[in-house]
Design brief:
Number of strands: 12
CATH topology: Rossmann fold
CATH architecture: 3-Layer(aba) Sandwich
Number of domains: 1
CATH class: Alpha Beta
Order of helices and strands: EEEHEHEHEHHEHEEEHEE
Radius of gyration: 16 Å
């Protein structure tokens, strides 16, 4: 069941340490599911771990956390090749797409190579909720600040641009983030934007 309107939940959070599992789904993930409008069946969520290199052990932890929460989780892998033939079909069959953190620069390059920039636009317009943390927040915007290139933060300006704003993540927890984000906007490198502290999501 798609959301009533194209919806993006861009966050600096989403999971927490688990009691019986390594981690559990936290309120921001459940809010993304709620926004999808799903009811009367188990929610379907696709975890996209491109920014972290599609680590299979991480996929397994997502599967475990989803099982504990009553959520059907599948993972979209692009390394070493896509794990499904019909990428659009897989994504359109979900209630929520959750994109994990890591290298947003690498994520954007790989997604474009496989045509996912166009696919995610289609999926978003169809009402599947797009969501994610850190790189999975930046990617939907025009750009923001990233450590994709090294320890010193640098701008990324080639986001998917579904949202016509800059995005700042981990705004309260990483000292470089706030001053660079503000400077890049002041200098016109990035458009006006919105930032999120850890544990916070921006709803569009």
């Amino acid at each position: 069941m798609p959301a009533d309107l194209p919806t993006i939940l861009a966050t600096s959070g989403g999971i927490k340490r688990g009691s019986r599992t390594n981690f559990e789904l936290a309120p921001l993930v459940f809010h993304a599911i709620e926004l999808s409008g799903v009811n009367a069946r188990r929610p379907r969520l696709c975890h996209v771990g491109t920014a972290g290199g599609d680590q299979r052990w991480w996929n397994g932890l997502w599967d475990e956390a989803g099982h504990a929460a009553g959520v059907d989780v599948v993972s979209l892998n692009l390394f070493p090749m896509p794990n499904v033939e019909d990428l659009a079909g897989l994504l359109l069959d979900q209630d929520v797409i959750w994109v994990g953190g890591g290298s947003v620069a690498n994520l954007l390059a790989i997604w474009r190579l496989h045509g996912l920039d166009r696919t995610f636009t289609e999926v978003w317009q169809a009402g599947v909720v797009l969501a994610g943390v850190s790189a999975g927040s930046l990617c939907w915007h025009v750009g923001g600040t990233t450590d994709s290139f090294g320890p010193e933060l640098r701008p990324v300006i080639n986001g998917l641009g579904l949202l016509p704003y800059a995005n700042g993540v981990h705004y309260d927890s990483e000292p470089q983030r706030r001053p660079l984000f503000q400077q890049l906007i002041a200098d016109g490198v990035l458009p006006d934007g919105y930032a999120s502290d850890d544990g916070v999501g921006l709803l569009y």
